[in-house]
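Case 221 in the screening queue. Each case pairs one protein sequence with one candidate compound; here the compound is D-xylitol-5-phosphate. For every case the pipeline is the same: read the inputs, emit a complex structure as tokens, and attach any notable structural observations.

Predict complex for case 221.
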Amino acid sequence: MVMIEASILSADFARLGEQACEAEAAGVDAIQVDVMDGCFVPNITFGAGVVRALRPLVHVPLEIHFMIVEPERYLTEFADAGANRLIVHQETCAHLYRILQSIRELGIEAGVTLNPGTPLSAIEEVLDIVDLVQVMTVNPGFGGQSFIHGQLDKVRRLRQRLDELGQQNTPIAIDGGINTTTAPLVVNAGATIIIAGSSIYNDRASVAENVTALRASLTNR
Ligand code: DX5
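Case 221 output:
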């Protein structure tokens, strides 16, 4: 069963609570909050206060995608705000193994993610302590970018490596440029979680219609 997560980066920020509820009502499996600091990526977005505000409104997991330098400074704050899973970029963590351990010691799930230009070898030594690996299929920082097809081979190699390690249950999530065309491609490559922002939140159709279309593109998967 493929999980669909809504990234609120493309939601209407003036109606963030409503938009999160719409995504939950549409049947998404989690909501991803893209936290950006203007340093690691050239954009600034949400703090822990937004997670605290959203927490009582939805029942689905709230997942934090940290696109910030030194994310270890904010792990406890976002966990206390109600986050169920914290995902850190390998590129921002001098002590990646310890940071992932710290997340798990908070009693929540730990994920690692890597930019399109970062090889899988950079996360080889932490594959056994993560709850998921998120592969970026755009350069992080903004929604609405084009999918980088060259990352499909990385997804296939990652699935093969996780299976070789006996980690068949470690899911691969894909973030960036996911829509009804690219979603089947990444699932065929071995992903079981897709994260979509602008293909869910846009003026072409409702959130419910967009989530339904994404789910339909994955029929029988
Ligand atoms: C990094 C963000 C985006 C977002 C999804 O920029 O992580 O990838 O979640 O945005 P879309 O689905 O619009 O590419």
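Case 221 observations:
- Residues 90 and 186 are 21 Å apart (CA to CA).
- Residues 7, 9-10, 34, 65, 138, 140-145, 175-178, 195-199 surround D-xylitol-5-phosphate (CB under 6 Å).
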